[in-house]
Amino acid sequence: MSKTITITGGGLTGLSLAIALRKNGVAVALHEAGNYPRHRVCGEFISGVSRETLEILGIADSLADAQLHRSVTWFSGNNHLRDNLLPEPALAISRLLLDDRLQKTATAIGVDLHTGSRRKINPHAPGEIWTAGRKPAKGGWIGLKAHIRGISPKAQLEMHSGPRGYLGVTPVEDGWHNVCGLFRIDKSIDARHEDLLPAYLTENGNTELAHRIAAAEWREGSFTAVAGFALGLQSPTPGVLSLGDSHAIIPPFTGNGMTMAFQSTETAFPHLIAYANGTLTWPAACAAIQHQLAKRFAKRLTSAKLLHPLLFHTAAKPLLKHAPLRPILSLIR
């Protein structure tokens, strides 16, 4: 009889891991603090994931009707910088829809799913995995997201940057556009709730986009915000196996965060199956997973960390305008 794997955190990493393990005969208990469906701060733009990865995890069907996006346009302030085509189409789908599909799949195949369940980290407990997202930190960032309709985007992905942050606009399903941005926290901004998005864009010099967003139709309940987190590798908790955003957060301009959630699962689950079947000890499984994660993600995390500050400097505008796209993507994919 196989051992049970207990996962805390029912986002993309937790859900895809639960599905992959259960489809390979492992008993899984999954605990999610919230409920489904729900909106999350997320670019909802999946760039660089392979069909093979999705099929290995058993979740390809949940993304079969995701929109395919290739065209990208970039603005600095109100100034248009460049237009590009991605080498391969990215997938666009809302977390509201995708998470709900995945949790239904997990439940249907026998994952023991608990919603509204808050659990504390239990260090050194065999078979326990932490996938509960960003770890609280003294980072100076705020993430803002909403679904908006009626803004007439100029490409399948609009990127808007400035000295305080950047924001992407991309169509998802049912005519809605996901607008999601990362900004340096500015306590002088006198705005609350939905007004934060146009307020931060205005302070960032993206005034035209701020007006478009303020005048558009907003999807009820879609505005979400998150603050107090750090980018890059997250502070490790001794004795705890952390995956997905709990392990590392790549700067969102890469479009690679959702992809890394799936790739974290792909990296980890063979070792977890070996543990569950008794052919690998828990410490050995954790060590192997940590080694493979570092090997798989080190280059893109380092490259993204180096490129990220350039998005905030006026002096780097010529680089943003003229840098070749493919070599940059090769670094952050």
Question: What order do the helices and strands come in, and which of them pair?
Answer:
Elements lengths: L4 E4 L3 H12 L4 E5 L12 E2 L4 H7 L9 E10 L2 E14 L2 H14 L3 E4 L12 E3 L10 E9 L7 E5 L3 E7 L5 E8 L11 H8 L3 H9 L1 E2 L5 E4 L4 E2 L7 E2 L5 E2 L7 H20 L5 H26 L9 H6 L2 H8 L1
Parallel strand pairs: 1-2, 1-7, 2-6, 4-9, 7-15
Antiparallel strand pairs: 3-5, 4-5, 8-11, 8-12, 8-13, 9-10, 10-11, 14-16
Helix pairs in contact: 1-3, 1-6, 2-6, 4-5, 6-7
Explained architecture:
- By secondary structure, the chain is an alpha/beta fold.
- It has a domain at 5-39 and 95-137 and 229-332: FAD/NAD(P)-binding domain, CATH 3.50.50.
- It is built from nine helices and 16 strands.
- Strands 3, 4, 5, 8, 9, 10, 11, 12 and 13 form a nine-stranded mixed β-sheet that branches. The protein has a five-stranded parallel β-sheet with strand order 6-2-1-7-15, covered by helices on one side. A two-stranded antiparallel sheet has the order 14-16.
- The longest helix has 26 residues, at 282-307.
- The relative contact order is 0.18.
